[in-house]
Amino acid sequence: MIKLIQVFGLASALALAGQAVAQTEADNRFERFAPSTTDYGRSHVDYSTWTMMLSEIVLNVGYSDRRSPRRDVGATGTRVFTGNTSRFRFEANRVIYHLVEDFHLDAITQYRQELEQVPEQLNFARLSPDEQLAYWLNLYTVATIEQVGLVYPQNDMERTRAANSELHYLDAPVVTVMGQPLSLNDIQYNIVYRFWDDPRVIYGFFNGTIGAPRVMREAYDASRVWSQLESNGREFVNSLRGVDNSPRSLIISRHYERARDTFFPNWPEDVRDHLSAFAGEDVMELIDSDIPVRPTSDEWGIADMTNGSNRCGGSISQTVSTGRGGTGSGRDAMFCGGLPDNARILLDFVVERRIRQFRDGSLGNVYVRDLPDQNIVIDMSEDDDENTEEETDGEISN
């Protein structure tokens, strides 16, 4: 400390000391969430309600075929195209926000509140590490979909603030667990990344953007949480947004760079080894090539079907208002007689790719849930008996 005072001055030394104290306090704040590795019971948390919700609002786009998308064009009568134009616009599962109405969001908010109460209903420390991991991943996903839905149709998530907050939606304390306000970044970096020393957890954090690991159409479950993460890992690594290349670089997602200090200290060898565990043949050739790693891929466009717009295209396009003070959401999106043009482009591409892969005999893990043109209903209702939390034989239903 004497040398620090001599070099930086007393004020700088005191500032460093203050930062150390603040870091210690922060560490203590999250220490309560450290999972036990030896002394835990057999309680199980059931997330079937969340699986039901996800199955109604998530479009499964399937695996990327790593083809560059064609250039999108505006519909007849206009040159305006309001869809996503990024290289990754046909990758990653999507939340169908343009059809989500206020009562859907109310159901998601209620479920998030119920999840927050779970640690107070049982001895959270005695849940197994896999149970606790599934809990944090589900809470993160619920809170993310809720926050993005509350500010929809904002589509640039890099600049999006949390509802009723001046803070970014990833930084704002949007959940409270065991009396501790937590942000989405707290859950990811200060809890899961800190206490689960396995890079596969990277693939459990869908932050509402196309560039993130995908959102699944089912909740994470402790009995297979690692296989679920591995499935997401294979999809992400073998997509353009996960691993791409230029003539002189192996371009990878910045999600790996954000996890570098935690999981890949021997950079870039560690991250190459990690990617190799999930890579298909084409991607493996890129990883094995002698080109430098550049973690520069970062797509912050919203992972919805319409890029925050319900424009139907052409000279008869109409914009409608919704109950949340925005445009392009709710069933008013059907006013034009079908899906908005930019949603149709995505859906048509997904179907076309599925047919092509089927003909090539490489359908593999591609799953597509086609949407009808009319009378789309998102049903997240549940029986009254299932709307209450019960603890029976060590099981919590949520």
UniProtKB/TrEMBL annotation:
InterPro entries: DUF547. Pfam families: DUF547. Residues 379-398 are annotated as: Disordered. Keywords: Signal. Residues 380-398 have a biased composition (Acidic residues). Residues 1-22 form the signal peptide. Residues 125-237 form the DUF547 domain. The keyword Signal applies. The keyword Methyltransferase does not apply. This is DUF547 domain-containing protein. It comes from Hyphobacterium lacteum. The lineage of its organism: Bacteria, Pseudomonadati, Pseudomonadota, Alphaproteobacteria, Maricaulales.
